[in-house]
Amino acid sequence: MVHQPSNPPYFDGLLHRLAIGEARTAAAFSRHVHWGYWHEPPQATCTPEEYGEAAELLSRVLCDVAGIGDGMRVVDVGCGFGGTIASLNERLGEMLLIGVNIDPRQLQRASDMVRPCGINSLKWVEADAAQIPLADASCDVALALESVFHFDRPRFFAEVGRLLAPGGNLTLSDFVPSERAAEYLDAIDFSADEAVRWSYGQIDLACSLSRYRELAKANNLELTQAIDITENTLPTYDFLYSSTKDWPESREVELFSRATRLLEKASRKGMLGYQVLRFDRL
């Protein structure tokens, strides 16, 4: 089983570079810590500033699929530095916005950087993704932007099924394997690879669309949208490789680059598709 873990060593370095004000890191990752989205991928320049904008755009894509509007109660599970909460807070009103993360360092950064706009209400909750201390039916939308592969998915889906009010939805992004690739990935423990473990921690990339449908059905949810945006995210890889050029430790560069190439290769070959999935509460 995969549970929401403590962060991999890569994340320690990222937090350190942000703390010392390293300019390239701040431009790219001060708000979001996930892949980017480009409307025109061939035109991507992959500067840190552009990457920060692309990460913001991916967050907005997810929120648009979720249909988030004024007055909603939204919980972002695995909220990172609170970038998606910040984006919603700036654009919408009368919101209850809750960021959940197991890492208190990320929550502290989010709390320091994001202040409620207007009469919006913000909360930051330190919790495991499968044990969120919120009341039943207390949320209209649950988000999991590029975090669900760290979770115990059956327990997470059960928790979301409990939290969502009737008519609510869970919207997430994930690296979703083809049905054939899922069978192959079942036999692989990516986290056993030192490079993957150092760069991305404990991950499960074997949840295909058919498996997601089974999880949804077991928890009073229905998969209603599955949007493959792989092509729009591919410039992420070029930026991530270039982002290591100032790292002082060559071993860390080697580990991160090797792990990231595994994801890139699987994505370009069609084994993994970066997808946005919406599950509606029945």
TrEMBL record:
This protein's gene is called rebM_1
Q: Which GO terms describe its molecular function?
A: demethylrebeccamycin--D-glucose O-methyltransferase activity; S-adenosylmethionine-dependent methyltransferase activity
The Methyltransferase type domain extends over: 75-170
N-terminal signal peptide? none
Source species: Bythopirellula polymerisocia
Q: Which GO terms describe its biological process?
A: methylation
Question: What name goes with this protein?
Answer: Demethylrebeccamycin-D-glucose O-methyltransferase
Query: Does this UniProt record's set of keywords contain Thylakoid?
Result: no
Q: Does the keyword Methyltransferase apply?
A: yes
Q: Which domain of life is it from?
A: Bacteria
Q: What is its EC number?
A: 2.1.1.164
Q: Which InterPro entries match?
A: Erg6_SMT_methyltransf (IPR050447), Methyltransf_11 (IPR013216), SAM-dependent_MTases_sf (IPR029063)
What are the alphabetically sorted keywords of the record?
Methyltransferase, Transferase
